[in-house]
Here is the input.
Amino acid sequence: MAKIGKTAAKERIEFLKKELERHNYNYYVLNAPAISDFEFDLLMGELQGLEKLYPEYATEDSPTRHVGSDLAPGAKGTDFVQVAHRWPMLSLGNTYAREELYEFDARIRKTVDRPWSYSCELKFDGTAICLTYKDGRLLRALTRGDGTKGDDVTRNVVNIPAIPRQLHGEGIPTEFEIRGEIYMPFEAFDRLNAERAEAELEPFANPRNAASGSLKLQNPAEMRTRGLDCVLYHMLGENLPFKTHIEALEAARSWGLPVSEYSRRADTIDEAVAYIDAWDTRRKTLPFATDGIVIKVNELDLQRQLGFTAKSPRWATAWKFKPEQACTPLVSVDYQVGRTGAVTPVANLEPVLLSGTVVKRASLHNKDQMDLLDIHIGDWVYVEKGGEIIPKITGVDPSKRPQDALRPAFPTHCPDCGTPLVRDEDEARHYCPNRESCPVQIKGRFIHFAGRKAMDILAGDATVEALYDKGWIHTLPDLYDLTREQLISLEGWQERSADNFLESLEASKRVPFERVLYALGIRHVGEQTAKTLARHFGSIDALMAASREDLVQIEDIGDTVADSILEWSASEAGRQTVRRLREAGLQMAVDENATVRLSDMLEGKTIVVSGNFSIAREALKALIEAHGGKNAGSVSSKTSWLLAGEKAGPEKLRKAEKLGIPLLTEEEFNAMIGGE
Ligand code: IVH
Here is the structure.
């Protein structure tokens, strides 16, 4: 590193410290990183270098000396109990340079005077988790937090199928910790982001943010739908009977814990480097994200001998993969209007090969992002695959900027209907406010309404376009007024296609309320939110009568969603739509008789549910019904069990005791219906 003057160094150190803290916050708390890991590591490397040169400015609170924190007291969605880690949860030293791997090996040789081996492992790109097992049962799950204390997310973690609540097998220590990574495979990530896009929620930047965001969900039942997975890679405990790390993990595997199948032992650093080289390409075929390779000294006594620095173990290091980037000229920018009026800038690029696919278009997110990049038409731009899937522009190379290059002008008016755009301050997005008559928005609403997850009506883009052009459909209920004659008169339509279409319209009248609610296309009400609302309110009338307070007290309903629902409920268009769709015969309330049957396990049983559980009470009641049982509000001689959670009603408990009605814990109930 080039030497710089003392004053300049001090200033730069201050700047870097602030910058790194800000990025740590974006990454760990908001789950929305503003820069890539690579850029972060560059800044961190610069700070480390400067602190080495000027130790007088290296303070205890420097981000080089502590790990980033995912704790955010007070914020919504973070009301988890914080628990101190028995052993601090540290990070790993990392490198992008091959020589540094050899330096790592040489440093070990200085301390260790006998041969050792390495465990070479994939570096899973998720969020760290620390599990404690006692007497073979999962006792607790903590996030890394700030490294010394983490959030207790046990109630969420029990909903990840890969994590066993009960271990089986030989030699399970009475108590031990095992740490690892919770991650979201690409497939689940794509599904989740598609759902978020539908609900016009900001997509997660990558699978890692999606995983850590999911872990902090307030509604544990929703965890099950997120498709999270887990891999464990570090066992800790007192007097564990293992000589090597690999042996400990093999034992863990035999007890039913998820351990990576890709780890290998290496006897020399050269072998470890060969493992790295092999995975640099092979990792692209994996169904989940990895951001590097971890190399650990395998012998546990040597690990103890080598010990730790303030931030990371001396017996392990991480080789980080450089994100795959391509550089290509920006040809033009399109502005797409979505069904809710949001305007998204999309870059048209000179086609370029990136991780095996040709990239021609990339998202620019919003105007702020364009300003931040200071993007000009003709610029050479860097494209990366966010989470290796969706290409995004991460930077520009101003040195290659053509003379007289112009900044693309963000439109002031809707590209489709010409209405002046408005900006949503909270979301940094621009919207076309002309909901009533902007053609793209209208057509978009019909396409959404007809979609398979919504009303499942046989109307794709072309049909909607044709019906709209004829002037027959403007608001959603117009669909139900279409006649056979009208349809047959459409170009290319025959009696058969018209009848199929009308049949699908007829069938849509039996679509359950939660899907109708989703189909209405209320901003921010995606599939999952619609389910939550339907379950909570039971009918459109109850939802439309809800106050702000009613809405925000529901798990996972925040201010943005609540405001959007209130605005829609109060609008004339919303009311008219509901009135006419109801007249057409659509389901506007939950059909109590139509719940899914999962088993007859609870046939003839009556259960009273009281207290707080790891899932919403309503969800538990639905489960009881799904297994053939009946719910009752009060304890009587006819009650089969009182399902009692935390803070169960004292009156109910007393009555159950008096009548000799057995109590059931949530765990016992789960076991009864065949859950884990
Ligand atoms: S070992 C004390 N092994 O990477 C050492 N970490 O950048 C504990 N990670 O905090 C970590 N895969 O969240 C280890 N095979 C692996 C890993 C791994 C992913 C994560 C972990 C750690 C971070 C360090």
Notes: The longest helix spans residues 6-29. The chain has a mean pLDDT of 89. Residues 90-92, 121, 123-124, 128, 181, 233-234, 294, 313, 316, 318 surround 2-(butylsulfanyl)adenosine (CB under 6 Å).
